Amino acid sequence: MSDNLKRAAAERAAQLVTDGMRLGLGTGSTAAHFVAVIGERVRGGLKVVGVPTSEATREQAQREGIPLATLDEMPELDLTVDGADELDDDLRLVKGGGGALLREKIVASASARMVVIADGSKRVAKLGKFPLPIEVVPFGLTATERAIGKLLESLSMKGELRLRRAADGAPYVTDGGHFILDAHLGRIDKPNVLASTLNNIPGVVEHGLFIGLASGAILATGEGLVELGQ
Ligand code: 5RP
């Protein structure tokens, strides 16, 4: 998706923002456009406070001059705008391609409303083509990996778990100090079941299935913007 389209989706989402709002600021290349647009509006007089979902977004928002708070200082938010790696027509999402899924999910859960901005190609009939990120604690990685494998088997799902690595080959470490296992599943027939059972495995911190969190989506396509939900 061209930067122009990402920017158009971000600008449409920014129209939802009014003075006094407490905003969750997402992570990724599409969310970065939203942060940039909000930065411009703040410099033009808009009064908002943002809670970033990653250190990268915090740095960008600081550069943009957006007043920031922690989620502890401001535990209830009006609106979060964030990207996604996949979404279906029930507004169920796969997120975490950028590694920020844990903070993204905590921030989205603390928000009255979450709106997704994404490339139209991320809208899918069935989730799972994009590898599902599963954030795990480094301690007992192999045992956790085996437990996830057993769970997938019990759900009749086949898939390879790959430890995400940084450019230097070392395990990728999240802002929370955890690792990520990317589950290459191909398709997820029952996302709700997988989402709730994954959370029962000790060692799993969080996963990238966002269910019941997004209330709307703004999708940028070559033909223009498509809006889902509200
Ligand atoms: C980060 C995310 C991102 O929102 C997701 O990866 C989409 O990123 P982009 O807008 O760059 O395609 O979940 O953890």
Largest sheet: 6 strands, mixed
**Contiguous helical run count:** 6
Report the bound ligands by name, code or SMILES.
ribulose-5-phosphate
Order of helices and strands: HEHEHEEEHEEHEEHEEEE
Q: In CATH, what is the class of the largest domain? A: Alpha Beta
Tell me, what's the shape?
Answer: globular
Helix content: 25-40%
Question: Would you give an account of this structure?
Answer:
This protein is an alpha/beta fold and 230 residues long. It has 2 domains: 3-123 and 211-222, Rossmann fold; 132-206, Alpha-Beta Plaits. It is built from 6 helices and 13 strands. It has helices spanning 3-14, 29-43, 55-64, 101-109, 141-154, 191-198, and strands at 22-25, 49-52, 79-82, 86-87, 93-94, 114-119, 132-136, 160-163, 179-184, 204-207, 209-210, 216-221, 224-229. A 6-stranded mixed sheet has the order 2-1-3-6-12-13, sandwiched between helices. Helix 2 (29-43) links the parallel strand 1 (22-25) and strand 2 (49-52). The longest helix is centred in the first third of the chain and has 15 residues, at 29-43. The radius of gyration is 17 Å and the shape is globular. The two termini are 23 Å apart. The structure holds ribulose-5-phosphate (5RP). It catalyses: aldehydo-D-ribose 5-phosphate = D-ribulose 5-phosphate. Substrate binds at residues 27-30, 82-85, 95-98, 122. GO terms for molecular function: ribose-5-phosphate isomerase activity.
Write the layout of secondary structure elements.
Elements: H1 3-14, E1 22-25, H2 29-43, E2 49-52, H3 55-64, E3 79-82, E4 86-87, E5 93-94, H4 101-109, E6 114-119, E7 132-136, H5 141-154, E8 160-163, E9 179-184, H6 191-198, E10 204-207, E11 209-210, E12 216-221, E13 224-229
Parallel strand pairs: 1-2, 1-3, 3-6, 6-12
Antiparallel strand pairs: 4-5, 5-11, 7-9, 7-10, 8-9, 12-13
Helix pairs in contact: 1-2, 2-3
The structure holds ribulose-5-phosphate.
